[in-house]
Write a structure and sequence with these properties.
Layout (H helix, E strand, L loop, with lengths): L9 E4 L12 H7 L2 E4 L3 E5 L2 H5 L10 E4 L2 H13 L9 E4 L2 H6 L10 E3 L7 H7 L5 E7 L4 H9 L3 E12 L12 E4 L2 H10 L9 E5 L1 H9 L6 E3 L7 H12 L2
Parallel strand pairs: 1-2, 1-9, 4-5, 4-7, 5-6, 7-8, 9-10, 10-11
Antiparallel strand pairs: 3-8
């Protein structure tokens, strides 16, 4: 029997467990009696201000910031505080999602700042940025970067600096060595890298792999693995929907 024909009973989500009891996967668990395990495959380590200074990036020279995660926001303002850099009130903030934009309220007086974010699709942020071509952008990110954002900035010849402010490193997964899951769900290339850092001889076998995002999907293929579940697509914009559609087919 081919892996694509095997039923799904266990799924490992390579992210922390949702804080909310009503997680996006709760109804799948109840409806299809699938067991979910949440385990982050990577963790974040702060980059000290002294190391940031080595890149010779002057934050105050930039007129706009691009944030692709809450973690990036936290570490940007940590670095700014450590370096005693005062962020101009004229600074513009471009956030990939509304949730990330709202998170800024912990660090700035939100109503007095120019904050931009997409109302529908995440990729709409690129259209918004293009309306502000004359800005000098600063993109705070981890050491693994966010190639899609950087490639967009390069392709459109926008003025920008890529600022590494924290490190994404592989977590210790040795306790999972003998544990098998029907599906492994990845959300970043770093998560997939962690698997091979922990298990260099990893053999996919009948394990189905789900990946979210173009970069993650490509990383799966580049690793010579089989990509069974892909998101987002026009039909399935979320990992939850992609998993549910797959389970519907194989758990009949």
């Amino acid at each position: 029997m081919e892996p694509k024909d095997l039923k799904v009973k266990t799924i490992l989500i390579s992210q922390p467990a949702p804080a909310d009891v009503k997680s996006p996967y709760a109804d799948i668990k109840e409806k299809y009696r699938v067991q979910f395990t949440f385990r982050p495959f990577t963790h974040v380590e702060p980059l000290p201000a002294k190391d940031f200074r080595k890149d010779k990036i002057n934050i105050t020279e930039h007129t706009a910031l691009i944030f692709s995660s809450k973690t990036a926001i936290e570490h940007f303002f940590r670095i700014a505080e450590e370096m005693r850099v005062e962020i101009s009130q004229d600074m513009k903030y471009f956030c990939v999602t509304e949730a990330i934009a709202l998170y800024l309220q912990k660090f700035i007086v939100y109503r007095k700042r120019k904050v931009f974010y997409p109302k529908v699709k995440e990729t709409d942020i690129y259209h918004i940025i293009l309306k502000h071509k004359n800005e000098n952008y600063l993109f705070p990110c981890s050491n693994v970067g966010q190639s899609e954002v950087v490639e967009f900035l390069k392709a459109n010849k926008l003025k920008y600096s890529e600022a590494v402010i924290y490190k994404t490193v592989s977590s210790d997964l040795s306790d999972l060595a003998e544990v098998k899951f029907d599906v492994l769900a990845f959300f970043s290339p770093a998560g997939l890298k962690s698997v091979f850092d922990n298990f260099p001889d990893f053999d996919q076998g009948n394990t189905r792999i789900a990946a979210f995002g173009a970069a993650t999907c490509q990383a799966v293929l580049d690793a010579g693995l089989r990509l069974d579940i892909k998101a987002p697509t026009p039909e399935v914009p979320s990992m939850k929907m992609a998993l549910e559609n797959y389970i519907k087919k194989v758990n009949r």
